[in-house]
């Protein structure tokens, strides 16, 4: 392993900058290294500095550095080989990597665009109506596809109450620059519907129709994210069922413990 020396002035600069931030030290270190990996500072399959070298750079213990590296392992950015070192992994070209730490981050998609594949219409769907806890068997439904660098990586079916769907009749197939459907619903209703969310995230095999839309082979495993939005009164105004091409999308949560 390399024994690269780090100037004391750089140690103070990196350490002092981190003292001014609120996240835990290991998260700060992980964020810096992730940014450097994204900027191409470390080539694919190139060995990273040792834990001791990183500890000197960030004025942190080896335990703290080890926790930071574990975050990058979980994100698929590095691999650790016992007795050989830590290496940057290869990432498919054009993959959209998303880090989620707040609900606001979860309902925004910077750097992407959306296509409306099927305009909002009222259809019979007993299952969706039941999950939204609305009377009757009918719901509003629209289908969108999200792209990054002009490559499709997700297809989503959105469900709302019929009366909401009627006010969203402008959500047609030519409106390709809307940010999110949940944002459009909140704009139309002039109220916040996403006070919180519930998510179920299984891995499933999808049929040809879905895979054609996100450019994966039929029968390949895809990430299925079912999101149920609820407002501040505990009502469920919107349900989204999404499928993601795992070769073009990675999803990482960054949650911090609060309270005692």
UniProtKB/TrEMBL annotation:
What is the organism of origin for this protein? Georgenia yuyongxinii
Q: Which Gene Ontology BP terms does the record give?
A: negative regulation of DNA-templated transcription
Q: What InterPro entries does the database record attribute to this sequence?
A: Bact_HTH_transcr_reg, Chorismate_lyase_/UTRA_dom_sf, Tscrpt_reg_HTH_GntR, UTRA, WH-like_DNA-bd_sf, WH_DNA-bd_sf
Superkingdom, taxonomy of origin:
Bacteria
- Per its UniProt record, what Pfam families does this chain match? GntR (PF00392), UTRA (PF07702)
Q: What is the lineage of its organism?
A: Bacteria, Bacillati, Actinomycetota, Actinomycetes, Micrococcales
- What keywords are assigned to this protein? DNA-binding, Transcription, Transcription regulation
Where does the HTH gntR-type domain lie?
A: 23-91
Q: Where is the composition biased (Polar residues)?
A: 1-12
Q: Which residues form a coiled coil?
A: none
> Which CDD domains does the record associate with it?
WHTH_GntR (cd07377)
The protein's name is: GntR family transcriptional regulator
PANTHER family named in the record: MANNOSYL-D-GLYCERATE TRANSPORT/METABOLISM SYSTEM REPRESSOR MNGR-RELATED, MANNOSYL-D-GLYCERATE TRANSPORT_METABOLISM SYSTEM REPRESSOR MNGR-RELATED
Q: Matching SMART domains, A to Z?
A: HTH_GNTR (SM00345), UTRA (SM00866)
What residues form the membrane-spanning segments?
none
The record's region (Disordered) falls at 1-24
């Amino acid at each position: 392993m390399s024994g690269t020396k780090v100037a004391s002035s750089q140690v103070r600069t990196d350490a002092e900058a981190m003292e001014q931030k609120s996240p835990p030290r290991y998260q700060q270190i992980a964020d810096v290294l992730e940014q450097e990996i994204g900027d191409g500072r470390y080539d694919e399959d190139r060995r990273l500095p040792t834990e001791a070298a990183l500890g000197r750079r960030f004025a942190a213990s080896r335990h703290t550095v080890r926790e930071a590296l574990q975050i990058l392992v979980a994100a698929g950015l590095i691999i650790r080989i016992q007795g050989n070192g830590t290496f940057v992994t290869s990432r498919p070209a054009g993959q959209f990597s998303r880090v989620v730490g707040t609900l606001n981050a979860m309902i925004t998609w910077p750097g992407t665009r959306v296509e409306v594949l099927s305009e909002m219409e009222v259809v019979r769907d007993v299952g969706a109506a039941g999950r939204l806890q609305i009377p009757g068997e009918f719901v509003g439904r629209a289908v969108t596809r999200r792209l990054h660098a002009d490559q499709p990586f997700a297809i989503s079916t959105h469900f709302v109450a019929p009366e909401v769907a009627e006010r969203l009749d402008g959500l047609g197939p030519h409106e390709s620059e809307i940010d999110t459907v949940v944002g459009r619903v909140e704009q139309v209703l002039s109220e916040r519907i996403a006070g919180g969310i519930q998510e179920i995230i299984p891995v499933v095999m999808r049929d040809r129709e879905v895979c054609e839309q996100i450019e994966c082979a039929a029968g390949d495993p895809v990430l299925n994210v079912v999101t149920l939005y609820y407002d501040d009164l505990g009502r469920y105004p919107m349900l989204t069922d999404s499928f993601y091409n795992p070769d073009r999308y990675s999803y990482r949560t960054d949650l911090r413990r609060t309270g005692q």
